[in-house]
Amino acid sequence: MLAAYLRALLAGAAGLVVNFLLLGLADRLGIVTARGGFQRLVKLWTGPALGALGVDRGWAALDLPDPSGPLFTTGFKVVVGLVMAMIYLGIQPLLPGPALEKGLVYALLVWLINAALVLPALGQGFAGMKMLSATGIIVFAMAHTAFFLVLAALI
C-alpha cells in the first residue's frame, strides 16, 4: 500500500510540473488565468479566526514565509496538488473507464467545484467570467486538465 501512496505522490508531482509549465507559458504569452482562487478563499474564510487566535503574530515571530509571497503560494499549490493525488488514489476505482477517462472525469469534477463554487464565492462569477477572458478560462481548464491526465496516466 505504501508503494501506491508513493506512486500517487510522484504522479501528482509530475502532474504539477506539467501544470506549472503550462501556466507559466500562459503568463509569458500574457494570458491571465484563474490562479490561487482556492488559496484566496481559504484565506478569506480562515484569516479572521487565525488572526484572532494570534496565528499571524506567531507566524511572523517565527519568520515563516509571507502567506502572500511566492514561496508560500507555490507551496500551497503543491500541497493541494498532492492532496488531489491522494484523493484520486482513493476514488479511482469508483471512476468509469480506463485511465484517460478516469483522469478526464476527475478533472471535470474538480474544475466544476472551482468554477461553480470557489470562483463565484470570490465574486469572480462562474469559471471567473467576470475577471477572465474566454482564452484565460480555456487555458486554465487545459492546464488543470493536463494535471489530472498526467496523474491518471501515471497511477
What does the model show?
With 155 residues, this protein is mainly α. The protein has one domain (2-154). Helices cover 75% and strands 0% of the residues. The protein has six helices and no strands. It has helices spanning 2-28, 37-52, 55-61, 70-91, 99-121, 134-154. Helix 1 runs antiparallel to helix 6 (134-154) and helix 5 crosses helix 6. The longest helix has 27 residues, at 2-28. It is globular, with a radius of gyration of 17 Å.
Keywords:
155 residues; mainly alpha; 6 helices; 75% helix; 0% strand; globular
Topology:
Blueprint: H1 2-28, H2 37-52, H3 55-61, H4 70-91, H5 99-121, H6 134-154
Strand content: under 5%
Q: Count the domains.
A: 1
Query: What is the terminal-to-terminal distance?
Result: 13 Å
Query: How confident overall, as mean pLDDT?
Result: 93
What structural class is derived from the secondary structure elements?
A: mainly alpha
Quick one: how many beta strands?
0
Oligomer: single chain
**What is the global morphology?**
globular
The residue ranges in which pLDDT falls below 50 over 5 or more consecutive positions are none
Count of alpha/pi helices: 6
Q: In sequence order, what are the helices and strands, one letter per element?
A: HHHHHH
Cα-atom Rg, whole angstroms?
A: 17 Å
Largest sheet: none
Helix content: over 70%
